[in-house]
Amino acid sequence: MARWVLMATAFAFAFGAIDANAARTLLADLMTRQPAGADEPAMSALALEACMRRAQDLDRTGVAIDYEIAAIDREAAEALLLQKYLSAELPMIGSYDEPALNEFQRRVVRHEELAKKFQTEFPLYQNKKNAYDTAVDEFEHTCANRFRRGDLEAIRAKLDLK
């Protein structure tokens, strides 16, 4: 079973199933948008403030998700390295003395721990990432309109944004 998990991990890395892209900077992107022209419709100051607060929340969530996948990536890389090391050691195991066998067993146990941890954590990460992506899509749809420059400056001051 552990070999299957590690093979799936290797496949995921090789074909990009683990998408470790940096979180988007929604707030910065929103604040650098061109304001609406004098004759264009614009979102209200209240809607702009709600969008800016939502962008802040999504930015924080995106960074947390990035840290989470980075930790999963490190552990998966360790598991893959251990798998290769253990596979290379198998033919020599009969010549090991007791301390070497104990070290081999310690590596096997660590490999199993990492495989179980990956089986638990990666689906949770995927759920969080999917929810985040859905929230970003909703944000993009809801906050697509332009705004008045004066409203932006007032809300930046109110939220203490630079």
Explain how this protein is built.
The chain is mainly alpha-helical. It has a domain at 1-16 and 69-162. The protein contains five helices and no strands. The longest helix is centred in the middle third of the chain and has 45 residues, at 45-89. Mean pLDDT is 87; it is low at 4-8 and 13-17.
List keywords for this structure.
single chain, 162 residues, mainly alpha, 0% strand, rod-shaped
Main pleated-sheet profile: none
Rg result: 24 Å
Q: State the distance separating the first and last CA atoms.
A: 51 Å
- Name the helix and strand elements from N-terminus to C-terminus, one letter apiece: HHHHH
Helix content: over 70%
Pick out the low-confidence regions: 4-8, 13-17
Query: How large is the share of residues in beta strands?
Result: under 5%
Q: Tally of extended strands?
A: 0
Shape: rod-shaped
Strand-pairing-aware structural class: mainly alpha
Mean model confidence by pLDDT: 87
Quaternary structure? single chain
Counting DSSP H or I runs of 4 or more residues, the number of helices is 5
In short:
Helix content is 74%, strand content 0%. It is mainly alpha-helical.
Please describe the topology of this protein.
Layout: H1 2-15, H2 26-31, H3 45-89, H4 98-142, H5 149-158
Helix pairs in contact: 1-3, 1-4, 3-4
